[in-house]
Design brief:
single chain; alpha/beta; Enzyme I, Chain A, domain 2; TIM Barrel; about 45% helix
């Protein structure tokens, strides 16, 4: 066939050239059948769920510690009765086990897959895996085997399937859907497996056996590559090796400007599962923990669940500073039973601190867990989507009330510093109005609001430039206020992870960046000026 080039999104860097293997869609593994007695159908489903949990636990028992945490997350989801509640309701009305389970899980998978927020889209793969695993058990089908050493093509790939493949043979992953922040993407990066996501449905129509080349850094898959493409790939491979060697040199050292001035390089994290794959020595702390990872289940997390998760993160950091953002949900980040679903413009809607203030009971549960966990490490609390001083004042009032309650109950607690995300232009323009303990610039939202260009519209990508002078001027304004008042200013958006933009951020005065873990080495090299030329 003629050379075919497909472009998606980078998920794990590296180049690979091998034969394609297209993994069949497992979501239709168990077709509906005539329903038997409702009690018998319910028992069939309960047994299939129990068997699926046992399968996952067997895989987890043989996995590395990092992968085990991810699989235990899936086990917990499958064991949550709220996940299967809708299916059992259909069965009680006369439905069959397979059809009821598939309908219930399809709805939840679609909700997460169509969310605009990256983290929630990434969790759809875990739900799809649970759906397909139970359907396969109900049908009695066997799982399709995956040859080692291939470029694996699939709609999506759950971590349990990833862990059953021999990646030492040299292979890669090309997904029609998927997300760079999915659990399987984290595993792929940790094991050096090139991976591209978001290639679209066309990739599923390419026949198995075709030779293909995948570039995990550029997000491309080339089927039946010609000689010119192969030659270019050799050049790219040399470039990647050179850049990786530079990144490895800087990975564990302290970040410094050419003049020797120190720069803090922290990492962004979406939960303890992600951190379990990383060595704390690579960073100066965690500049952003997206607490949304706790709210991706069928029910809202209680105080103890949140407390344990925050403690795990603090223990990983080992005394390094950890900034945990309170729930940044709403509009484009749906949380069942909490967020509003009828807003016409979600990016300008009830999200972040606005939602927390609208749901004070949920907000205070999170604040209590955070204050209790703060005893165990260097924890800071950050409020998202702050637009007025009133937002900060009300958030601080809730924190004070929580502390008074913990003191009255004689529970161990600490009062963490309370900062704000500077992502709304109103906050950046009039930053001197906000009496926060620290400031963290969210370059993603700040850029899209300043440039009036939604960051998820590809046609507007030229506008979504954090290095635009209008955006940089607001960053510099915030940094200057921090210097004048003696308060820390950091930046935790995607711009901090881009070596090409880092020099502009440094010129704006920033000396604290929070980046994706995979970018640490390259960012430190960019700070040192080692990537010039």
């Amino acid at each position: 066939m003629a050379e075919l080039r497909l472009t998606g999104r980078p998920a794990s860097p590296g180049l690979a050239l091998s034969r394609l293997f297209v993994l069949a869609d497992a979501s239709r593994a168990a077709a509906s059948r005539p329903a038997e007695d409702p009690e018998r159908e319910a028992e069939r489903l309960r047994k299939a769920i129990a068997d699926a949990i046992a399968e996952l636990e067997r895989v987890a028992s043989q996995a590395d510690e990092d992968a085990r945490d991810i699989l235990e997350f899936q086990v917990a989801m499958l064991g949550d009765e709220a996940l299967s509640e809708a299916a059992f309701a259909v069965i009680s009305d006369g439905g069959d086990a397979a059809g009821a389970w598939q309908a219930a899980l399809d709805t939840q998978v679609d909700e997460y897959a169509n969310a605009e927020d990256e983290y929630f889209r990434a969790r759809s793969a875990d739900l799809a895996d649970l759906r397909d695993r139970v359907l396969r058990i109900l049908s009695g089908a066997t799982q399709q085997s995956i040859p080692a050493g291939t470029v694996l093509v699939a709609l999506d790939l759950p971590p349990s399937r990833f862990l059953g493949i021999d990646w030492k043979a040299g292979a890669a992953i090309a997904l029609a859907g998927g997300s760079p922040t999915s659990h399987v993407a984290l595993l792929a990066r940790a094991r050096g497996v090139p991976m591209v996501v978001g290639l679209g449905a066309d990739v599923m129509r390419v026949p198995s056996g075709q030779e293909a080349m995948i570039d995990g850094e550029r997000g491309t898959l080339v089927v039946a590559p010609g000689e010119a493409t192969r030659a270019a790939a050799q050049v790219r491979e040399a470039e990647i090796r050179k850049r990786q060697a530079i990144a490895d040199t800087f990975q564990r050292g302290k970040a410094k400007l050419p003049n020797g001035e120190a720069v803090m390089v922290m990492i962004n994290a979406a939960g303890p599962d992600e951190l379990s794959l990383l060595d704390p020595a690579i960073c100066d702390g965690i500049g952003l923990v997206r607490s949304e990872f706790l709210f991706s289940g069928a029910t809202l997390p209680d105080e103890e669940t949140q407390y344990r998760a925050y403690v795990r993160i603090l223990e990983w950091a080992g005394g390094r500073p950890v900034t945990i953002r309170t729930l940044d949900a709403g509009g484009d980040k749906p949380v069942k039973g909490l967020t509003l679903d009828d807003e016409g413009n979600p990016f300008l809607g009830t999200r972040g601190i606005r939602l927390s203030l609208l749901k004070p009971d949920v907000f205070r549960v999170q604040l209590r867990a955070l204050c209790r966990a703060a005893v165990r490490g260097n924890l800071k609390i950050m409020l998202p989507m702050v637009a007025t001083p009133r937002d900060l004042a009300q958030g601080r009032a809730h924190l004070a009330a929580v502390i008074a309650d913990l003191a009255a109950r004689k529970m161990p607690y600490a009062e963490p510093p309370l900062g704000i995300m500077v992502e709304v232009p109103a906050a950046a323009i009039a930053i001197d109005r906000f009496d926060a303990d620290f400031y963290s610039i969210g370059s993603n939202d700040l850029t899209q609001y300043v440039m009036a260009a939604a960051r998820d519209i590809a046609a507007l990508s030229d506008y979504a430039d954090a290095a635009d002078p209008a955006v940089l001027s607001l960053i510099a304004r915030t940094v200057e206020h921090g210097k004048h008042t003696g308060r820390e200013v950091s930046l935790c958006g995607d711009a901090a992870s881009d070596p090409a933009i880092v020099p502009h951020l440094l010129d704006a005065g920033l000396r604290s960046l929070s980046v994706s873990a995979s970018s640490v080495g390259l960012v430190k090299a960019a700070i040192a000026g080692a990537l010039v030329g």
